[in-house]
Amino acid sequence: MVDLDDLKEIGEIDKGGILGLCIKTWALYEEALSFSYEVELPSYMESSGGYPHGRELRKVVVAGMGGSAIGGCLFRDMLRDEVGVPVEVVGGYTLPAYLDEETLVFVVSYSGNTEEALCSFVNAVRKRCLVCTVTSGGQLASFSKRLNMPFVKVPGGLPPRVALPYLFTPLPVILERIGLISSIKEELEESIQVLRRLAEELAPEVPLRDNLAKSSAQTIAGTTPVVFGPYYYSSVAYRLKTQFNENSKTLSFWGVFPEMNHNEVMGWERTGPLHKLISIILLRDRDEAPYIKERIEITKRLVFEKASNVIELYSSGQSKIARMLSLVFLGDLISVYLALVRGIDPTPVRTIEQMKKELRGKYDLLSKLEAEIRSMEKRRR
Ligand code: F6R
Questions:
Q1: d(Cα 248, Cα 244) in Å, to the nearest integer?
Q2: Atom number in ligand 1 closest to CA 352
Q3: Helix H segments across the chain?
Q4: From CA 44, how far away is CA 113, in angstroms rounded?
Q5: Is 275 a known active-site residue?
Q6: Is 246 one of the catalytic residues?
Q7: What phi and psi values does residue 161 have, to the nearest 5 degrees?
Q8: Helix (H) or strand (E) holding 281
């Protein structure tokens, strides 16, 4: 195993420099907060109090894949107690039948070239939804400009999963600007302060014995991490599972309380030797409701005792947004340190790229979308 306190060695392994980028997550949120309030929205979105073109907004949907979808999942979980309309995240080529003129659809793709996101964009326009895109460029930026759709242009050049602050922040801010939620600026500002403080505690210069992210990574190394959180943190648990996949290049699984108490616990009864290869990561909160806290404690005693080890990660901060983003940040760093302790460069995602390359050109989806955009353009003239 690599010594995580050997800064020279971990610097050599981390060729893409993802550790430094992750530590600076707070700065990306700061930047994203200011551009999200400044981005130009059409007057019908900005001033109408949620009634663009006289239509009431009754649903919000975020369409995207992978690192571009997770911001939508966090947004959905954070706002579940605040926004009075359903918020759903969809990934894939088609959109649900319920989408209509009263639906606000955010299409998010960091590269702007993900075919599923481009299909969602065209489908959403076809269904006459109110569409807003979030992208660093690519075809999605071009389609948005050609159809005169509002779009948030975010800075490019990062791995999409690192660009989470750019892809997440515009969603709640635009909802606030439309008038669907009350101000969330203070909560986002608190989150930035919390992440800034955590960045100091978890920095590469802080030795393993005092560094929760490094010590957790070292404990997990050699096992398969399985993440559980309460249902309202499902997006955080899922984010951590995907970060283990993409950064640490390891299999990982996830689940939520209380659902796992109704099925998955049975799978632990007869695992054979498998349970000894599993690290349990529990996402915790100091203000858990008693019915969640008790479940977690009982599950630890009845089930997780069999695992190789159990790591409990507590959120920091006051607001729900800060608490969720603090756990995301801590998890991101654990996944990066886990790659490094295993001697793996966290940045490249070769198999994802190979998949996209092999699919490209297999069917003429993009030319069909291009033809459809052209005819939409003509109709709008
Ligand atoms: C994350 C990552 C993938 C992409 C996904 C979609 O770092 O590489 O999960 O986010 O393949 O691509 P984009 O984000 O460009 O739409």
A1: 5
A2: 11
A3: 7-13, 18-23, 25-38, 43-46, 70-79, 115-126, 138-146, 164-168, 170-178, 185-201, 212-220, 234-246, 264-267, 290-302, 320-341, 350-359, 365-380
A4: 28
A5: no
A6: yes
A7: -65, -25
A8: strand 278-284
Q: Is 300 a catalytic residue?
A: no
What is the reported pLDDT for 247?
98
Would you tell me how many other CB atoms lie within 10 Å of the CB of residue 12?
13
Residue type, 124: A
Q: What is the pLDDT of residue 47?
A: 53
Q: What's the one-letter identity of residue 375?
A: S
**What does the pLDDT read at residue 51?**
56
pLDDT of residue 361: 77
For the chain, domains (ranges, CATH) are 7-17+205-341 (3.40.50.10490), 42-177+358-380 (3.40.50.10490)
Separation of alpha carbons 117 and 331, rounded Å: 26
Query: Does ligand 1 have an atom closer than 6 angstroms to the CB of 245?
Result: no
Q: What is the pLDDT of residue 248?
A: 98
Element (H, E) at 42: none
Residue having the nearest C-alpha atom to atom 8 of ligand 1: 160
